[in-house]
Specification:
GO molecular function: phosphatase activity
Strand content: 15-25%
Number of domains: 1
Shape: globular
Helix content: 25-40%
Distance between the termini: 43 Å
Oligomer: single chain
CATH topology: Rossmann fold
CATH class: Alpha Beta
CATH architecture: 3-Layer(aba) Sandwich
Protein name: Broad specificity phosphatase PhoE
Strand order of the largest sheet: 3-2-4-1-5-6
Largest sheet: 6 strands, mixed
InterPro entries: His_Pase_superF_clade-1 (IPR013078), His_PPase_superfam (IPR029033), PGM_Phosphatase (IPR050275)
Order of helices and strands: HEHEHEHEHEE
Structural class: alpha/beta
């Protein structure tokens, strides 16, 4: 392909948005469980995201089927008069600790029986393989990109699938310390394409001033 034909390829951006804060006073790792909705602060984050994307040339807004993702995506879609789509491929990662309390005191990780699931952080052994998350997320990104040439698309998903996708895009290793993920609540990880070629990855925190002072459960 000549240099001239490459420059004629459409520039398309797919934004991977993490959902806002969830009402979760017990500190449960809720994973794919239903019934976990945005907190009051999470709803403010969702409205802020709607403002953040107000001037974007959005062709589509899609979200994980979980309530927290749907509620985060709704103001974005509403601001553009778009129908909110649902995509199972951008669902939260599967996790064997789902429904358990992870943390100090009575937290699950103080139980030696839980350690049997922690033997392989590379896969990881306690849940859905990182590579499986990347495959399904990449397929969703590809479809969103190809359906909106020259425009932008939003996918509202969850921390770990977004982070694993970014690591792959930036040629980083997939296994990592969860405390070091750059994927805050209501953050925006943007994949910038020229045609089908990934040009760059960028990251923004439109709700930085709304973030809680105490971090939530990793992966939530």
């Amino acid at each position: 392909m000549s240099a001239q034909s490459r420059t004629e390829q459409p520039r398309t951006t797919v934004h991977l948005v993490r959902h806002g804060e969830v009402h979760n006073p017990e500190g449960v790792l809720y994973g794919r469980l239903p019934g976990f909705h945005l907190s009051d602060r999470g709803r403010k984050m969702a409205e802020r995201l709607g403002e953040h994307f107000a001037d974007a040339d959005l062709a589509s807004v899609t979200a994980s089927p979980l309530e927290r993702a749907q509620e985060t995506a709704t103001p974005i879609a509403r601001a553009h008069g778009l129908r909110l789509g649902t995509d199972e491929r951008v669902l939260e990662a599967g996790n064997s600790f789902q429904g358990k309390v992870i943390g100090q005191g009575r937290g699950l990780l103080r139980n030696p029986r839980a350690w049997l699931l922690l033997w392989n952080p590379v896969r990881p052994s306690w849940g859905e393989p990182y590579t499986a998350q990347v495959r399904r997320m990449t397929a969703a990104v590809r479809d969103a990109r190809d359906a909106a040439p020259g425009r932008e698309a939003v996918i509202v998903s969850h921390q770990l699938p977004i982070w694993a996708t970014r690591c792959t895009a930036e040629d980083r290793r997939l296994w990592h310390d969860p405390r070091k993920r750059e994927c805050a609540l209501a953050s925006v990880t943007s994949l910038h394409f020229e045609g089908q070629r990934l040009l760059a990855v960028s990251y923004a925190e439109p709700c930085a001033d709304l973030l809680p002072s105490v971090p939530q459960v990793p992966g939530a």
